[in-house]
Amino acid sequence: QSCRRCARQVLRRPLLMAATGLFAACISRCLHAVFLGPWPAATSGSSEGSLRGRKTTQLSDVAAAAPLGSSAATFATAQSLALLALTAATATAGVLGKRWSPGKREGVRAGRTSLQASWEPGRFAKTVAFFKGNPWKLLLPGFLQDGDAKVPAPAAARGAASSATQAVIIDWGASDKLPIAEAWGPLDDVVMGGVSSSSLSVRGEGERRRLTFTGRTSRANNGGFCSFRSRLFNPPLNLKDFSGLVFTARCKDGLRYKIQLRDNNEWDSLGWAAAFDLAPGEEVEVRIPFGTLTPNFRSQIQKDAPPFRPDSISSIQLVLSAFEFEKRLNPRFKEGDFQLELGPISAYRE
């Protein structure tokens, strides 16, 4: 979608468009240089420095766009200023965090001094970049942002529509040789100011291939979750002929995890989740019938949600969280180190 077309919907005056666009571009380049390295070089004739090769029209072309609506212009300008203030605040927090003990910073409120965990804005930016494709497009209103980062649907899933009663759909890169870091990434509470952290690795071959999810959870800064999630599958997984998912799992502590599926292409949107418990040190088979999935948005149950669409599964996420649904605490959550091993994920039919 061209900038010219977007400008007609957002901005009323070409001069205001030029000022706002230039402001956002400057902020984007500065933040990119700080957190992600040099800004990609643009090619002549268009400003193609945007990540993932996304084309945008030059500012001079946008300035020639037909004027429309002043309220949206005010909103866009206000949003850019708000994001600038947020960036300054988080950068300051990061600097302050280095002045005290690692992972801690001192906060003063109403004459009282307390220790708080230090948030990592750089890790936040990298997380958003992995899933959104370009973190700085968050400077734009939602309807001006293009799609999130995508990855080819797993090769193992291409035969999932066969007549078999069980079919492997996720084998952690064994079939397509796609590095795990290209398709899956940590999604921790750093996105909401927390300090929990996690990482992924793969070992073994064939049916013994395992994904290992390790990390440390912390309730500091009102956080308390670690997870990993796939980029958007392109095309989505079509599992309409199956009844649910099945996989083996092992964790060193007896913890309760959640699996979250999405049947849409939105980053922060309705999901379908189910919890499962694991015994300490034992590898167990976990079955997740599609009929038991709970529709939720940010862990709040959505009673009026449309039916789950198993023919359009766009992403899969595994979560270890201090909370379940409706702010209920997870009774089997333990703050600190964790390790989860997952075998291949299959779809089954009954």
Automatic annotation (TrEMBL):
The lineage of its organism: Eukaryota, Sar, Alveolata, Dinophyceae, Suessiales. Belongs to the CIA30 family. It comes from the Eukaryota. InterPro entries: Galactose-bd-like_sf, NADH-UbQ_OxRdtase-assoc_prot30, NDUFAF1. PANTHER family: COMPLEX I INTERMEDIATE-ASSOCIATED PROTEIN 30, NAD(P)-BINDING ROSSMANN-FOLD SUPERFAMILY PROTEIN. GO terms for molecular function: unfolded protein binding. This is NADH:ubiquinone oxidoreductase intermediate-associated protein 30 domain-containing protein. GO terms for biological process: NADH dehydrogenase complex assembly. It comes from Polarella glacialis. Residues 182-342 form the NADH:ubiquinone oxidoreductase intermediate-associated protein domain. Pfam families: CIA30.
